[in-house]
Amino acid sequence: MKLILITLLVLFNLTTFAQSNGFSGDYNRTFSAAGDHLIEYKLTLHQDGTFVFHSYSKIKNGFPPEVNKYGKGRWIAKDNVITFSSNKQEDFDEKYTLDFNNSKARFVTKNPRDKSDRIIKTKLTFVESEIPWMQRLDVFKI
Fold it and tell me: Quick one: signal sequence residues (predicted)?
């Protein structure tokens, strides 16, 4: 009985760990307009359940012309939805100011049963966020 219980426990932990491996990695998105404007978003999901986000914008005639914004915290995945959270005491300082609490993103990838030739890039689509410009933002896995 103990052997069966231990085996089930190990299988459960391996399944949970294997699912997070598909989500973890680097994601980014770049928007540019003829060298005048540049907006970059970079998101890294670590396997230990933490994340780091960097937003960079360089806008010609903007004030200020270059802006860097950072955020960090923890993430958890349930089904294909990733929920982000930030701890006010640990994740915020002078550099990390973006609040990812109440932010959710949907993980989109090609279904393994889809045998068609269409190409679907693996991405995260932010479906909820209190950061206004994060709504409906797609960041692609690299």
Answer: 1-18
